[in-house]
Amino acid sequence: DTAVSQTPKYLVTQMGNDKSIKCEQNLGHDTMYWYKQDSKKFLKIMFSYNNKELIINETVPNRFSPKSPDKAHLNLHINSLELGDSAVYFCASSQQGLTGGYTFGSGTRLTVV
Amino acid sequence: GENVEQHPSTLSVQEGDSAVIKCTYSDSASNYFPWYKQELGKRPQLIIDIRSNVGEKKDQRIAVTLNKTAKHFSLHITETQPEDSAVYFCAATPREGGADGLTFGKGTHLIIQP
């Protein structure tokens, strides 16, 4: 069983479109995250969310918005896609106080053309 | 916020030799320091982590050391093998599992020469 799963794995879309990436975790973790990995491999946090708080990295454009229907899911919506949004997006989850750290999904490679 | 610096950006070693990757962090409140390995096209995977109440931790060929006073931590890989070739990331957070998430270094591309 995949602990953190993301769909789709690849996403190619035109500028100006709106798209969503889905993420689900079956680990029972409290907190979920979205990270962006750019072409230089730099991993940067975009959002973290648990049932109590949403923390938004201040550098993330408001075209990006997380949506969490329940504790096991954190989807990423992106409006008005731009060329610079092309990257690999990783979902992750964690449980405070437990060993094992943060578990990452397999990533979604987004290409905006 | 936290800032993590990682060096070197690329490291090439002969198979069987040791590799050392170093990181520094800025936030004295950080208390959890994981290391991730990312192979090409794959997800980052946790290989070892250390908490601020421990100075050193070892797991077979991999070890991590932490100097809280100096705010730096290092990854040591001994007897390197071809399958160790990957990008390695250090990270830090003030709350393990907390909503702050991880702040990553920029990664080290480790190349194991046969």
**What is the helix content of chain A?**
under 10%
Shape of chain A: globular
Query: Which structural category fits the helices and strands of chain B?
Result: mainly beta
Helix share, percent of chain B: under 10%
Weakly predicted, low-confidence segments of chain B: none
SS-based class of chain A:
mainly beta
**Count of individual helical segments of chain B:** 0
Largest sheet composition of chain A: 7 strands, mixed
The SSE string of chain A, one letter per element, is EEEEEEEEEEE
Uncertain residue ranges of chain A: none
Mass-distribution shape of chain B = globular
Radius of gyration of chain B: 13 Å
Report the major sheet of chain B.
6 strands, mixed
Structural key phrases:
heterodimer; A: 113 residues; mainly beta; four-stranded antiparallel sheet; 11 strands; globular; B: 114 residues; six-stranded mixed sheet; 0% helix
Give a written overview of the molecule:
The complex is a heterodimer of chains A (113) and B (114). By secondary structure, chain A is mainly beta. In chain A, strand 4 and strand 5 (43-49) form a beta hairpin. Chain A is built from no helices and eleven strands. Chain B is an all-beta fold and 114 residues long. Chain B has strands at 4-7, 10-14, 19-25, 32-38, 45-51, 56-59, 62-67, 72-77, 86-92, 103-104, 108-113. In chain B, strands 2, 4, 5, 9, 10 and 11 form a six-stranded mixed beta sheet that branches. The A-B interface holds A 29-31, 33, 35, 40-45, 48-50, 53, 55, 90, 94-107 and B 32, 34, 38, 42-46, 49, 87, 89, 95-104, 106-107.
